[in-house]
Design goal:
alpha/beta; 3 strands; three-stranded parallel beta sheet; 37% helix
Protein backbone atom coordinates (compact mmCIF):
# COMPACT_ATOMS: atom_id res chain seq x y z
CA UNK A 1 0.00 0.00 0.00
CA UNK A 2 1.28 3.44 -0.92
CA UNK A 3 0.34 5.98 1.76
CA UNK A 4 0.60 9.73 1.22
CA UNK A 5 0.45 11.90 4.33
CA UNK A 6 -0.61 15.47 3.51
CA UNK A 7 -0.25 18.66 5.50
CA UNK A 8 -1.80 22.02 4.63
CA UNK A 9 0.23 24.51 6.62
CA UNK A 10 -0.77 28.08 7.28
CA UNK A 11 2.49 29.49 5.86
CA UNK A 12 5.53 28.30 3.92
CA UNK A 13 7.68 28.96 6.98
CA UNK A 14 5.73 26.42 9.04
CA UNK A 15 6.46 22.73 8.96
CA UNK A 16 4.19 19.97 10.13
CA UNK A 17 5.50 17.79 12.93
CA UNK A 18 2.45 15.53 12.72
CA UNK A 19 3.15 14.28 9.19
CA UNK A 20 6.73 13.50 10.13
CA UNK A 21 5.65 11.59 13.23
CA UNK A 22 3.07 9.51 11.36
CA UNK A 23 5.53 8.85 8.54
CA UNK A 24 8.16 7.75 11.06
CA UNK A 25 5.69 5.42 12.73
CA UNK A 26 4.56 3.65 9.55
CA UNK A 27 7.53 3.83 7.17
CA UNK A 28 8.71 0.32 8.07
CA UNK A 29 5.31 -1.31 7.50
CA UNK A 30 4.14 0.41 4.31
CA UNK A 31 5.38 2.55 1.46
CA UNK A 32 4.74 5.99 2.91
CA UNK A 33 5.72 9.54 2.08
CA UNK A 34 4.58 12.98 3.11
CA UNK A 35 4.05 16.27 1.36
CA UNK A 36 3.33 19.78 2.62
CA UNK A 37 1.35 22.58 1.02
CA UNK A 38 -0.12 25.78 2.40
CA UNK A 39 -3.71 26.90 2.71
CA UNK A 40 -2.84 29.64 0.20
CA UNK A 41 -1.81 27.19 -2.54
CA UNK A 42 -4.15 26.75 -5.47
CA UNK A 43 -6.40 23.83 -4.55
CA UNK A 44 -6.51 22.50 -8.10
CA UNK A 45 -2.70 22.37 -8.16
CA UNK A 46 -2.66 20.58 -4.81
CA UNK A 47 -5.15 17.99 -6.05
CA UNK A 48 -3.18 17.51 -9.29
CA UNK A 49 0.05 17.00 -7.35
CA UNK A 50 -1.57 14.52 -4.98
CA UNK A 51 -3.05 12.52 -7.91
CA UNK A 52 0.32 12.58 -9.72
CA UNK A 53 1.87 10.78 -6.75
CA UNK A 54 -0.64 7.91 -7.24
CA UNK A 55 -1.27 7.03 -3.59
CA UNK A 56 -3.50 4.15 -2.54
CA UNK A 57 -4.44 5.97 0.64
CA UNK A 58 -4.25 9.64 1.66
CA UNK A 59 -4.07 10.86 5.25
CA UNK A 60 -4.60 14.55 5.98
CA UNK A 61 -3.31 16.46 8.98
CA UNK A 62 -6.37 18.49 10.05
CA UNK A 63 -6.48 21.61 12.18
CA UNK A 64 -8.91 24.45 12.72
CA UNK A 65 -7.08 26.66 10.20
CA UNK A 66 -7.02 24.12 7.37
CA UNK A 67 -10.12 21.97 7.78
CA UNK A 68 -12.17 23.76 5.12
CA UNK A 69 -9.39 23.37 2.57
CA UNK A 70 -8.82 19.73 3.55
CA UNK A 71 -12.50 18.90 3.15
CA UNK A 72 -12.63 20.54 -0.29
CA UNK A 73 -9.50 18.74 -1.48
CA UNK A 74 -10.57 15.40 -0.02
CA UNK A 75 -13.96 15.59 -1.72
CA UNK A 76 -12.46 15.55 -5.22
Amino acid sequence: MKLLIVALNSKYTHTSLSVRCVHGAVKDICDSSFVEYTINDNQESVVADIFARKPDCIAFSCYIWNIENVLKIASV
